[in-house]
């Protein structure tokens, strides 16, 4: 166990199962990647000391926590953690603010997080490392903090299917290294901020077809930009057949 570098625990049952025996994690001093799926997970912060220097990736899918509330406050001592992926995890009451202290974090991927209403204002503290921020299908997210515009290394921003998000921060044009922006099925976003014309590194903008015209000024300012319009998904399309 002491040489283990990748640990994947997947529950194949139809309901979540409690993850027991986490005390054995104490021997995983070389662990680099941890993936947990469909499990009831105790507080991770209490079990990360042994691999705080080695762990680079955490992935949680369909997980919950003790007393039905998942505590994913990540140990701030995970100095080399580069990626966090959280998908379809239930009963997460607040965004784990400790994530913003992980100064080596390159990729933060949060999908199908239906109780997420706000991103912490201090997410700008990841300015020296974060390259990808995915907030996909976060159905109750209503705004992005202005500090997101301080993420000077950000190359990909995906806010697709955030149906209640009304706007991007006004200074989004400060993201000088942003190469890909995905804003599909964000019905309440009617236009991009004027500063978006300063996104000099932007190469791919993926949006709904009806939003393409709103982005025409960007293509005039950036000849290297490709705007990709995609028809929105209509899950009840069969009703018209």
Describe this structure in words.
The strands form two sheets. This protein has a ten-stranded parallel β-sheet with strand order 1-3-5-7-8-9-10-11-12-13, with no helix packed on it. It contains one helix and 13 strands. The chain is mostly beta strands. It starts with 5 loop residues before the first strand and ends in an 11-residue tail after the last strand. Strand 12 (204-208), helix 1 and strand 13 form a beta-alpha-beta unit. The chain has one helix spanning 216-221, and strands spanning 6-10, 17-18, 33-37, 39-41, 57-61, 64-65, 83-87, 107-111, 132-136, 156-158, 180-182, 204-208, 226-230. 2% of the residues lie in helices and 22% in strands.
List the helices and strands and how they pair.
Layout: E1 6-10, E2 17-18, E3 33-37, E4 39-41, E5 57-61, E6 64-65, E7 83-87, E8 107-111, E9 132-136, E10 156-158, E11 180-182, E12 204-208, H1 216-221, E13 226-230
Parallel strand pairs: 1-3, 2-4, 3-5, 4-6, 5-7, 7-8, 8-9, 9-10, 10-11, 11-12, 12-13
